[in-house]
Design goal:
Strand order of the largest sheet: 6-13-10-11-8-7-14-5-15
Distance between the termini: 36 Å
Pfam families: CT_C_D (PF02682)
Helix content: 10-25%
Number of helices: 5
Radius of gyration: 19 Å
Strand content: 25-35%
CATH superfamily of the largest domain: Cyclophilin-like
Keywords: ATP-binding, Hydrolase, Nucleotide-binding
Number of domains: 2
CATH topology of the largest domain: Cyclophilin
Largest sheet: 9 strands, mixed
Structural class: alpha+beta
Organism: Salipiger thiooxidans
InterPro entries: CT_C_D, Cyclophilin-like_dom_sf, PxpB
Protein name: Sensor histidine kinase inhibitor, KipI family
């Protein structure tokens, strides 16, 4: 079913102290870019009474203090901002980063890499080249503190989730499904295939920037050997590096 872009953006009420502005009904590059850009603009505006904002795959959420700002007044500000430009064509905000997170693909550390390659119709060598060179965007954080969803990968990686859960993947696991990566911040079960393993620390309590990644950041997962990974595991940053995006 085709997305009716004419129906968006839309605004919805979330409880007594929340509003949600959505730019689509499924993940797509324009809708995700719009959600990130819109959230940045709300933050820049600094409206009284807004206590928290966040972006998801296609939406921007605002939590506000109903005693400090009337629901109707805040909704009116949002509608004016929604109509101020074509958000599906908006530029991503400044201050983003490009991260490089070294990754071991396959072997004992990432045992479902071969299975994922077969599902994508690729040899393991071609799969390694594709995944290790892909430059993906952090589309949202969720499930655990600092845990990113990243996409979109090339169309060949539109592989379904598994029918059964993998009981546990470790912290730093890079998993794949439906043209997306998820990089695990904690040890947890998953229905996505475990294709890579990193030593990256995604959440550091007390740091000025506690989350390594932010929505809108871009990430490359270059391939490294298991020996190199062992050395990086002792590094507090897990071998990850970043540079500012223009």
């Amino acid at each position: 079913m085709a997305l009716d872009v004419a129906a968006y953006p839309i605004i919805r009420t979330v409880g007594i102290d929340g509003l949600l502005v959505s730019f689509g009904d499924r993940l797509g590059e324009p809708a995700n870019r719009a959600a990130i850009a819109f959230r940045a603009e709300v933050e820049r505006a600094g409206w009284d009474g807004v206590e928290e904002t966040s972006s998801s795959l296609v939406s921007c959420y605002l939590r506000f203090d109903p005693l400090a700002v009337r629901h109707a007044d805040l909704e009116a500000k949002l509608r004016a901002l929604m109509g101020s430009r074509d958000w599906l064509e908006a530029e991503l905000p400044h201050g983003r980063r490009l991260h490089r997170i070294p990754t071991v693909y396959g072997g004992t550390l990432a045992p479902q890499f071969g299975e994922a390659a077969a599902a994508a119709g690729l040899s393991e060598a071609d799969a390694l080249g594709s995944l290790s060179s892909a430059r993906v965007r952090v589309t949202a954080l969720g499930f655990a503190p600092g845990q990113p969803y990243l996409g979109q990968l090339p169309e060949c990686w539109d592989v379904p989730r598994q029918q059964a859960l993998t009981p546990k993947v470790p912290k730093g696991a890079l998993v794949l499904a439906i043209r997306q990566f998820v990089l695990f911040a904690v040890t947890a079960p998953t229905g996505w295939r475990h294709v890579g393993q990193t030593a990256a620390t995604l959440f550091r309590m007390g740091d000025a920037r506690p989350f390594l990644l932010a929505p809108g950041d871009e990430v490359i997962f270059p391939a490294v050997s298991e020996d190199a990974f062992s050395n990086m595991a002792a590094d507090p940053g897990g071998g990850a590096s970043w540079e500012a995006l223009p």
